[in-house]
Amino acid sequence: MGWISDHIELLLCAFAVCIFAFRLFTVLKKAKKIDAEGIVTDAVVSRVEEFYDPDTASDSYTTYVVYTDEEGVQRESAMALTQDAEYEEGMHVRIRYLPSEKDMVRIAEDA
What we know:
31% helix, single chain
């Protein structure tokens, strides 16, 4: 057999790591942009979804908030980089969002 067929598992693992690293890089880059350029507003936690993360062998959470954007439209977006269960449905929070990319928001730490 050839080298590729002998090392297919290793190649697939390396590919998966590259995809994970790229995804993490894009999320971190977007979070940094939200922190620098985002509009601050009030929001309410609308739901918290729990899922098992096989990479960390633990439970992770995606927190969603509902807020009204600068155009008066009510939106629901996922909060970036929330892995802990620190938020509960109905909690009031201050967030930052980008008007051009409303799919992800961040907690407004300094507002």
